[in-house]
Write a structure and sequence with these properties.
CATH superfamily of the largest domain: Copper homeostasis (CutC) domain
Oligomer: single chain
Helix content: 10-25%
Structural class: alpha/beta
CATH topology of the largest domain: TIM Barrel
Number of domains: 4
Length: about 650
């Protein structure tokens, strides 16, 4: 990708969603392969990926395949074979976490660093660039200054910086969470996270006093960088990534369209930037991120630390406020809407908070309008089942059936601009199509020349039939008729000539498409920024170990999943701080009379049923560690990796 191009990167659970992402303006799509992806239940067969690739490449859009789990030794060869198949299917790049893949004999497919590689420093970003990764997705926790520092340390001609701009937020630094594996044996680094971060916890201090009760203190609001795109561009981001390989078609359509609109506005104002793919998209709806599932929005740390990043009351979708309850009957509820324009529909989903702050859903079986801003709704469930539902209760809507039906229909068109030129030849006519990327195709056909009886009508009919590009990916930007006089040309001839020229242009575009090249690692091999790696480096196979040894690392521990760490360790490292969010941070207390010096960053305990985790606070780094240990039942199911703890001495004929 060129440094002046801005790439909108959309998720796809499957090929059909990926095709709609392209239709709604994505410059690139990322999708899971058959296996080894960090979303275990969002896999796709190679044939489906090939179908998506063929469609995306019509618009010069690219397809990236996730192969971003850590691999065992016996998975390396199956992964290599899968990569060959993906390359043959036309995939443009692989998104990877496991550095052992760089030690394999791979086809020349471009490699991108997954968010799981935890890129937070200029030194690590530069290293990944220098070992041959062409695009790197930075940690979600970075602020603009940190992003700019990484851009300054890397080469924009060699390495594109990618950043998540929308979707669910993992509270941990990606790749640095092991709670799921420690408690259940399901590894987040192996694509099978149990999402302990979305559970409710009781928070207690060192004396056992309750600090917070049944709060989802590790659950973040959803990411939304809509207001920060230009600042991110100026900091060096060129690929804008939407989270959501588990999300449905409606989400991908809406959020892709939303960011396409915002980026196009920036490109329009700032001509030094360009789209990273071809064509323009028109929408049959107005994009609105609030309409999709969200836990309310935050821009996280991009503008610095904030105290409202958590979705502590519920990990569910609280929806948009629509009004309040005016009366509760035996089978119905009357509502006054916040605006007279709000329309309630059969099938809508409403919700409200009980007095205990539990989010409760109410599905509408039938909605009746009583008057301006007044509705009577009949829930699917019995009225008696709705706790604390009373007059004055605030009500939100988290499912709008009108919106859902709108996005169930075809909702966007993507077209590449073409100019048409019809001219005479010695024995007929020739049609040339030239597209906005500079590709051209000309087709000639023999036909007798017969003067038109009605010149104006003949020209209008000719232009009408030449411009019929509706079933193609093209849109007419202009039609030039370079004829010596007005000829009568039958519609059947014009239509056939147009179809043949369109087919020739599509074939020419396909032949001209070039996949992005695989970057070469620098020589001599770049030196890794550290000489010792703990379990946090996620080294799970001997090829990964060999990779780091080649790049100067002296001591390499095995990944946490190898079960060598038997005692208490950091099971999650996060920039989110529970003390800060609960206004218990020592830094917050500085200068507060009567409080300064009495608030300390002492550990806290999280309790969910029989599960207990300790929160420890690294105030210098402004980070929180969630500490725990491997459950005995999980530890039994392991095949430990035996890496060297120090670099072994080479013997004759036995290189290290």
């Amino acid at each position: 990708m060129h440094p002046h191009q801005l790439e909108l990167l959309a998720p796809a659970r499957d090929a059909d969603i990926g095709i709609e992402a392209v239709n709604h303006g994505a410059d690139a799509v990322y999708v899971g392969g058959p296996s080894f992806g960090a979303r275990a239940s969002a896999s796709n067969e190679v044939a489906d990926i090939a179908r998506l690739v063929e469609y995306a490449h019509r618009f010069n859009a690219r397809v990236f395949v996730t192969l971003n789990t850590i691999l065992t030794d016996d998975e390396l060869e199956p992964a290599r074979r899968q990569i060959i198949q993906l390359y043959e299917a036309g995939a443009d790049a692989l998104i990877i976490q496991d550095m052992g893949l760089l030690e394999l004999d791979l086809p020349p497919i471009q490699l991108h660093a997954s968010t799981q590689t935890d890129i937070r420093t200029p030194e690590k970003a530069r290293f990944l660039q220098d070992v041959g990764l062409s695009q790197i997705v930075l940690a979600r926790e970075l602020d603009l200054e940190q992003i700019a520092a990484i851009r300054a340390a890397t080469d924009p001609e060699r390495c594109t910086l990618e950043f998540f701009v929308h979707g669910a937020l993992c509270v941990a630094y990606s790749g640095q969470c092991y709670i799921s594996h420690a408690h259940t044996g399901r590894s987040a680094n192996r694509g099978d996270c149990s999402q302990a971060c979305r559970l409710p916890y009781q928070v207690t201090d060192m004396e056992g006093r309750i600090v917070a009760h049944d709060k989802h203190v590790l659950s973040m609001k959803d990411n939304n960088q809509s207001d920060n795109l230009e600042a991110l561009i100026d900091a060096g981001i060129r690929s804008f990534k939407i989270e959501g390989r588990y999300k449905d078609m409606g989400y991908v359509k809406n959020i892709t369209a939303h960011y396409r609109t915002l980026l196009d506005e920036i490109i329009e104002r700032r001509p030094e930037f360009a789209r990273a793919s071809a064509g323009r998209t028109t929408f049959a709806f107005t994009p609105d991120p609030e309409q999709n599932f969200n836990r309310e929005f935050t821009d996280y740390f991009v503008g610095g630390r904030r105290d409202d990043i958590g979705a502590f009351d519920t990990p569910k979708n609280p929806g948009l406020f629509v009004g309040y309850v005016s009366k509760v009957g035996d089978k119905w509820v009357e509502l006054h809407t916040d605006s007279p324009d709000i329309v309630l529909n059969n099938g809508d989903g409403l919700c409200y908070y009980t007095l205990q702050k539990d989010l409760t859903g109410l599905a509408i079986n039938r909605a009746e309008k009583l008057g301006t801003g007044a509705w009577r709704v009949f829930p699917k469930d019995a009225i008696a089942s709705f706790k604390d539902l009373r007059a004055g209760t605030m009500v939100s809507r988290n499912r709008d059936m009108n919106w859902t039906r709108l996005l169930d229909k075809p909702s966007a068109e993507r077209r590449i601009g073409v100019w048409l030129r019809l001219e005479e030849t010695a024995d007929g006519f020739a049609l040339t199509l030239t597209d906005e990327d500079g590709h051209a195709a000309t087709v000639e056909a023999a036909h007798a020349k017969e003067p038109a009886k009605d010149a104006a009508k003949a020209e209008a009919t000719l232009r009408e039939h030449l411009g019929k590009l509706g079933a193609t990916p093209f849109a007419s930007m202009g039609i030039a008729l370079e004829l010596s006089q007005d000829w009568f040309v039958p519609a059947s001839f014009v239509n056939a000539l147009r179809r043949d020229t369109v087919a020739a242009l599509e074939a020419g575009r396909a032949a001209a498409y070039r996949r992005p090249p695989r970057a070469q690692a620098v020589e001599p091999p770049a030196v890794y920024p550290e000489d010792t790696l703990s379990y946090l480096a996620n080294v799970y196979n001997h090829k990964a170990r060999d990779f780091y040894a080649k790049h100067g690392v002296q001591v390499i521990a095995a990944a946490y999943e190898s079960h060598e760490e038997k005692g208490e360790v950091s099971l999650m490292i996060t920039r989110h701080c529970v003390r800060y969010s609960l206004s218990l941070c020592p830094k917050q207390a500085k200068g507060v009379t009567g409080v300064q010096g009495t608030v300390r960053a002492a550990p806290l305990t999280l309790i969910n049923g029989s599960e207990k985790l300790t929160l420890r606070f690294d105030c210098k780094a402004c980070e929180m560690h969630v500490v725990g240990k491997l459950k005995p039942a999980v530890a039994k199911n392991s095949a430990p990796l035996n890496f060297y703890k120090t670099q072994p001495v080479a013997r004759a004929g036995h290189p290290t």
